[in-house]
Amino acid sequence: MAWTRDEMAAIAAKELQDGFYVNLGIGLPTMVANYVPPGMDVWLQSENGLLGIGPFPTADEVDADLINAGKQNITTLP
């Protein structure tokens, strides 16, 4: 059986290690942010240059000014 996009993103996130700086591409790679384990410090760079993106926002967290190169809403980390 083929993996889903979410399964592939979760598998990719398991390759990350504390302290990594990772440049994500458009599409599936942006989903990796949703699977970074709590407490792990990983700095994700979006395709448009933002360093410190977080998981996709919930409906109440959407900020129309925060988007990635794929025009998807994103969150930022402190």
Task: Give the class from helix and strand content and strand pairing.
Answer: little secondary structure
Average of pLDDT:
88
Shape: globular
List the total number of helices. 1
Q: How would a textbook summarize the main sheet?
A: 2 strands, parallel
Summarize the amount of helix as a percent range: 10-25%
Distance between the termini: 39 Å
Strand content: 5-15%
Uncertain runs are none
Element-level helix/strand string: HEE
- How large is the radius of gyration? 12 Å
Strand neighbour order, sheet with most strands:
1-2
Strand element count: 2
Explain what the structure shows.
With 78 residues, the chain is mostly loops. It is 12% helix and 8% strand. The protein has one helix and two strands, in the order H-E-E. The protein has one helix at 5-13, and strands at 21-23, 43-45. A two-stranded parallel sheet has the order 1-2. It is globular. The model has no long low-confidence stretch (mean pLDDT 88).
Keywords for this entry:
78 residues, little secondary structure, 1 helix
Brief digest:
It contains one helix and two strands, in the order H-E-E. The protein is low in regular secondary structure. It has a two-stranded parallel ribbon.
Topology:
Elements (H helix, E strand, L loop, with lengths): L4 H9 L7 E3 L19 E3 L33
Parallel strand pairs: 1-2
